UniProtKB/TrEMBL annotation:
InterPro entries: CoA-transferase_III_domain, CoA-Trfase_fam_III, CoA-Trfase_III_dom3_sf, CoA-Trfase_III_dom_1_sf. GO terms for molecular function: CoA-transferase activity. This is Formyl-CoA transferase. It holds the Pfam family CoA_transf_3. Keywords: Transferase. The keyword Transferase applies. It comes from Brevibacterium sandarakinum. SUPFAM superfamilies: CoA-transferase family III (CaiB/BaiF).
Length: 406
């Protein structure tokens, strides 16, 4: 890929769908990234002075631009609009008239103050779908409180169960709460697009971070309400799921071995040279193994320490036992599965040079997803996009003079 890549998707399943992204940071923009990967035209609205703060976030930058930004803003066009001005709000309403979807993650009430609510925008565009991502949702007593992803992760139950039982609650090493809200929001948007075929009408998709986290918490709630069981931190294991843990090898590596299913445990026992273990009443069933989780983990660890990691992987693969390394980026770049599926791609750009990043997922057999370009320069598409919706050169010059656009 290179900077000459067409600015519209040729194959994506959402080609022809226009998205107006008015959010910033992660929760809204990650949804925009997903929709762009699927082929939608994503027009990202940014403040003309500094743009989205994500342009500076992350641990590494190239020419002052964050590498995180190169991923999160890929496949998007950047339009600058000062939404605090009447002229900026007017331009946003004009853009929304031709949009299928608006994505925003401001604090609830912010768009209403600017005359950009779904009720307002849908008067001239009845089919408009608006995704509203927020910490606590658009209703309820917490709705207008500041709600970052970390707060949603805590309220949704995730933070309490992450980490070792000997330490305070931990966090996952990525912004998982924001990303989950974007994922659930994307599902809602796609469902609303499908429903629009029947009704001809758009609607609001309300994605709360804490609810999106809660939606991933499996049987956390009924285990408490029905049996009084509170899920606790359990480190690298899941309680009563055994053997399924990280195990040491002779060359100082750690492997994931997951053999908690009865048939798989039988295959592991054979690989361990101890097939009778699978018939021992103390280990023969899922429930029995769960009761003896710690001692079973010790047995598997004693076995795994006899092998170098690669040799143990080969042995367990021969016995069809799920096993895998704990990957770092360098492992991903050298792995044959990653290479065969192009899970990581190189994307060319003027600003960054070549950027290596994760590909677009999932894969579709006929209308595939793609990374077409990296995160754009601030405002690089402003004139092109506004010209398409009726602004001539004189109007654009006036907006520039007033600081509405960059």
């Amino acid at each position: 890929m290179n900077v000459e890549t067409p600015r519209h998707s040729a194959t994506g399943p959402l080609r022809g769908i226009r998205v107006l992204e008015m959010g910033q940071l992660i929760a809204g923009p990650f949804c925009g990234q997903l929709l762009g990967d699927l082929g939608a035209e994503v027009i990202k609205v940014e403040d003309p002075k500094n743009g989205d703060p994500m342009r500076q976030w992350g641990q590494a930058t190239v020419k002052g631009s964050s590498l995180w930004w190169s991923v999160l803003a890929r496949n998007k066009k950047s339009v600058t609009l000062n939404l605090r001005t009447v002229e900026g709000q007017t331009a946003a309403r004009t853009l929304a008239e031709s949009a299928d979807i608006v994505v925003e993650n401001f604090r609830p009430g912010s768009l209403e103050k600017r005359g950009l609510s779904h009720e307002e925008l849908s008067r001239s565009n009845p089919g408009l779908i608006m995704l509203r991502v927020s910490g606590f949702g658009q209703s309820g007593p917490y709705a207008k409180q500041a709600g970052y992803g970390s707060i949603g992760e805590a309220m949704g139950g995730l933070r309490y169960v992450v980490g070792d039982p000997s330490t305070p609650p931990s966090r996952v090493g990525v912004s998982i709460g924001d990303s989950l809200a974007a994922l659930f929001g994307t599902i809602g948007v796609l469902a609303a697009l499908q429903e629009r075929h029947t009704s001809g009408l758009g609607q609001v998709v309300d994605s709360a971070i804490y609810e999106s986290v809660l939606g991933m918490m499996e049987s956390l709630v009924p285990e408490w309400t029905e049996e009084g069981i509170q899920k606790e931190r359990s480190g690298s294991t899941l309680p009563k799921i055994a053997p399924s843990n990280v195990y040491p090898t002779a060359d100082g590596q750690w492997l994931i071995i997951a053999a908690n299913q009865d048939t798989v445990f039988r295959r592991l026992a054979a690989a361990m040279g101890n097939p009778q273990l699978a018939d021992d009443p103390e280990y023969a069933t899922h429930i029995a193994r769960g009761k003896r989780q710690a001692e079973l983990d010790e047995l598997v660890a004693e076995f795994s320490l006899q092998f170098r990691a690669d040799d143990l992987i080969d042995l367990l693969n021969e016995h069809s036992v799920p096993v895998g390394k704990i990957f770092r980026v360098e492992d991903m770049l050298n792995d044959p599965q990653y290479k065969a599926r192009r899970s990581v791609v190189e994307v060319d750009s003027d600003d960054y040079g070549t950027v290596t990043m994760q590909n677009a997922f999932p894969r579709l057999s006929r209308t595939d997803t793609a990374v077409r370009w990296v995160g754009p320069e601030l405002g690089q598409d402003t004139e092109e996009v506004l010209f398409q919706v009726g602004y001539d050169q004189n109007a654009l010059a006036e907006l520039r003079d007033k600081g509405v656009i960059r």
